């Protein structure tokens, strides 16, 4: 389905369009799961690093509810339990939620009923949310579009997972038509693309919904280069496989060799060999190798093929860059409305088509059929900013490990087929993705300004890992010390609202295991990076645009020997997953006055603590409506009788039944904004012991 425009003259007509767009996506997603022969398949994983399929089935519905709650568009959840376990997919994050196998997954029937309830909610909102045209990034309706586009991404990635499911679990349904034009492959050749200037990035206010990474600007001169006329076919790639390409280490990068070692791959994942004959897996069956279909490989395999072909032809082949691909699109005349051209997209077929089917002025499959790997990493354009409803959509991929995939595939719809969309995956990751090669000047990418200036994250890095100011001690260290001195048992601790992770490490000096959880993946990433790479770098703002660059190492912090006791997670304190339980200490630092419904956290926090468990709350009680609707504030207002309500009194009222208040104190902290501007805050600490 083509994307809908954000513009229009009739609000009612736009509501109707959004409704159709939503229903089409929601229903097609469910249709995809009708390919499973029976319900037990929902509890199978198609790959060991992925959740069972039931997760994805519930996840796209939960996404709507979670984003609507977070943006305070709705205040009631539909099913809090489902909305915690279906919350975050591993696709979005670099760390895997390996505990997922221990969840008590709901039944397929329950999940279907839940999906139905969410559908009703979204339909009501489409009818009733305030709407003016054009729909803007700040509009409430944007969050609905975000949910629809998110489901379109999962529609595509689920179709990849389905393709990896054993065939005995999958059945054919007539809604998904697979192309059967199997034949010999055409011989590939090179086509010249003249030098040109390219501009990437789109403006706010443009015609279609976009993810955060699409906005901004970037321009570059592209030197003339040559590109392959066709995507690399199974036949062309077969030469590489048969010549021992997977056994010859010299063609593979270091990461590629690691991929070979772990995967033990001898050929692409959708291929199989029986008695010397090659077969190919399409969505619902296994067929003789279709030589004229594009090969589907991960980026590391595509890169190794280029190295092999370079040696064979004594010419240097590489994968195209993002800018070269844009030059190619310009050359064949693809413009803003490229999603309207005739190509193998939008489930025209539920499979690839021959590489010589869709001709774009002499070059084939410029868009559609399968995605095309690139040599470009995901980087932000000038002017990049995150969307408040989904601040971790792209930021975790600015790590120089995620490579862009270009074009789109047969399973791409909506935003995925628009001109400006940008998607990136780790290089060992499979999609319906193949490649075309280019012969170019191989200029290193010119976009070198790696995203390191997320102001809030940098400020927090400075706060947790930087210097002390005005003789106020490091707040994360002080908090951990207070907690450690009052904890009765020291097996397991939870640092809730861990931000960039300093206190998580400090607690690990005493506790056997510490989970650090924060709502924002951008923050948690810092703790993860420190653990995995041993170093973090950040900027500290001095004056105007002047900054100092700072570097902190694991070694200097002295956490090398305790880091194995820490684990970091993205999570919502108001709706934590059930497996976060059994703690001797829960430390909620500067958290409760930032929660959208703090009571949801406080009412049930005792269930996550062991007997004699300690709950430590620190907060300056700075209630603000941007974080918490006033009806959910715990203090800082007058009640209906004109009596002043203080947060500590409400805490006593809520926690008093299940906890004994054993300690209170003030604890100051200083956050540096610039060299001459600091926030000096007095946090209130209250420590509560669970009654046995
Ligand atoms: Fe997702």
Could you characterize the architecture of this molecule?
The protein is an alpha+beta fold. The chain is built from 16 helices and 25 strands. The chain has a 7-stranded mixed sheet. Strand 6 and strand 7 form a beta hairpin. The protein is globular. The chain starts with 10 loop residues before the first helix and ends with a strand. Fe (ii) ion is lined by residues 59, 63, 89, 91-92, 150, 154.
Q: Helices and strands in order, then pairings?
A:
Elements: H1 11-33, H2 53-70, H3 80-85, H4 108-128, H5 140-164, E1 190-193, E2 196-200, E3 218-222, E4 225-228, H6 234-242, H7 254-263, E5 271-274, E6 277-281, E7 286-288, H8 299-313, H9 322-331, E8 359-360, E9 363-364, E10 371-377, E11 402-406, E12 423-426, E13 433-434, E14 438-439, H10 455-465, H11 475-486, E15 492-496, H12 502-507, E16 513-518, H13 521-533, E17 535-543, E18 546-553, H14 554-557, E19 566-570, E20 583-589, H15 598-604, E21 609-619, E22 637-638, E23 644-645, H16 647-655, E24 659-674, E25 677-690
Parallel strand pairs: 10-13, 15-16, 15-20, 16-19, 20-21
Antiparallel strand pairs: 1-4, 2-3, 4-14, 5-6, 6-7, 8-9, 10-11, 11-12, 17-18, 21-25, 22-23, 24-25
The protein binds fe (ii) ion.
Fe (ii) ion (FE2) binds at residues 59, 63, 89, 91-92, 150, 154.
């Amino acid at each position: 389905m083509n994307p809908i425009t954000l513009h229009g003259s009739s609000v009612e007509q736009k509501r109707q369009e959004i409704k159709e767009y939503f229903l089409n996506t929601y229903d097609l997603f469910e249709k995809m799961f009708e390919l499973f022969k029976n319900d037990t398949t929902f509890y199978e994983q198609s790959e060991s690093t992925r959740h069972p399929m039931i997760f994805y089935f519930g996840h796209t519905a939960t996404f709507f509810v979670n984003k609507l709650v977070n943006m305070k568009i709705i205040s009631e959840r539909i099913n809090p339990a489902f909305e915690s376990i279906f919350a975050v997919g591993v696709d979005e994050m670099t760390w895997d939620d390996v505990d997922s196998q221990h969840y008590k997954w709901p039944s397929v029937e329950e999940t279907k009923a839940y999906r139905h309830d969410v559908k009703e909610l979204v339909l009501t909102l489409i009818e009733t949310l305030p709407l003016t045209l054009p729909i803007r990034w700040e509009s409430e309706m944007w969050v609905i579009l975000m949910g629809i586009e998110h489901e379109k991404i999962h529609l595509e990635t689920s179709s990849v997972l389905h393709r990896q499911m054993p065939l005995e679990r999958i059945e054919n349904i007539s809604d998904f038509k697979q192309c059967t034009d199997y034949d010999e492959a055409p011989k590939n050749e090179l086509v010249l693309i003249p030098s040109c200037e390219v501009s990437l990035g789109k403006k706010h206010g443009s015609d279609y919904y976009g993810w955060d990474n699409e906005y901004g600007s970037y321009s570059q001169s592209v030197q003339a280069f040559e590109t392959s006329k066709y995507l690399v076919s199974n036949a062309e790639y077969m030469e590489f496989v048969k010549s021992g390409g997977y056994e010859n280490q010299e063609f593979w990068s270091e990461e590629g060799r690691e991929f070979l070692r772990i995967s033990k791959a001898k050929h692409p994942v959708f291929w199989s060999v029986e008695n010397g004959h090659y077969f190919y897996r399409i969505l619902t069956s296994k067929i003789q190798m279709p030589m004229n279909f594009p090969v589907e490989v991960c980026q590391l395999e595509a890169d190794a093929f280029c190295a092999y072909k370079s040696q064979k032809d004594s010419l240097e082949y590489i994968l195209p860059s993002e800018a070269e691909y844009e030059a190619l699109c310009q050359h064949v005349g693809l413009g803003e409305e490229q999603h309207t051209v005739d190509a193998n997209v939008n489930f025209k077929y539920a499979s690839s088509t021959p590489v010589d089917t869709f001709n774009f002025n002499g070059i084939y499959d410029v868009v559609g059929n399968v995605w095309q790997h690139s040599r470009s990493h995901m980087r932000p354009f000038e002017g990049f900013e995150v969307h408040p409803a989904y601040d971790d959509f792209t930021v975790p991929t600015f790590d120089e490990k995620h490579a862009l995939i270009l074009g789109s595939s047969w399973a791409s719809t909506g935003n995925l087929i628009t001109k400006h969309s940008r998607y990136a995956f780790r290089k060992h990751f499979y999609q319906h993705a193949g490649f075309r090669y280019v012969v170019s000047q191989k200029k290193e990418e010119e976009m070198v300004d790696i995203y390191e200036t997320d102001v809030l994250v940098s400020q927090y890095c400075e706060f947790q890992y930087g210097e002390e100011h005005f003789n106020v001690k490091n707040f994360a260290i002080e908090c951990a010390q207070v907690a450690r001195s009052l904890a009765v048992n020291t097996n397991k601790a939870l640092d809730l609202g861990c931000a960039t992770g300093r206190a998580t490490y400090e607690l690990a000096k005493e506790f056997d295991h510490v989970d650090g959880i924060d709502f924002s993946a951008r923050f948690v990433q810092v703790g993860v990076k420190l653990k995995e790479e041993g170093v973090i770098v950040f900027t500290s703002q001095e004056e105007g645009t002047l900054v100092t660059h700072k570097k902190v190492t694991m070694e200097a912090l002295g956490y090398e020997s305790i880091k194995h006791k820490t684990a970091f997670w993205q999570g919502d304190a108001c709706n934590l997953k059930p497996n976060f339980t059994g703690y001797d200490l829960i430390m909620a630092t500067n958290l409760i006055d930032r929660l959208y419904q703090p009571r949801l956290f406080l009412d049930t926090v005792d269930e996550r603590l062991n007997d004699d468990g300690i709950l430590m709350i620190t907060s300056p009680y700075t209630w603000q409506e941007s974080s918490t609707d006033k009806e959910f504030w715990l203090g800082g207002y007058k009640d209906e009788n004109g009596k002043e309500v203080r947060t500590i009194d409400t805490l006593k009222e809520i926690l008093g039944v299940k906890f004994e208040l054993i300690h209170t104190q003030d604890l100051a902290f200083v956050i540096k904004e610039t060299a001459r501007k600091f926030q000096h805050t007095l946090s209130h600490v209250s420590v509560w012991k669970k009654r046995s």
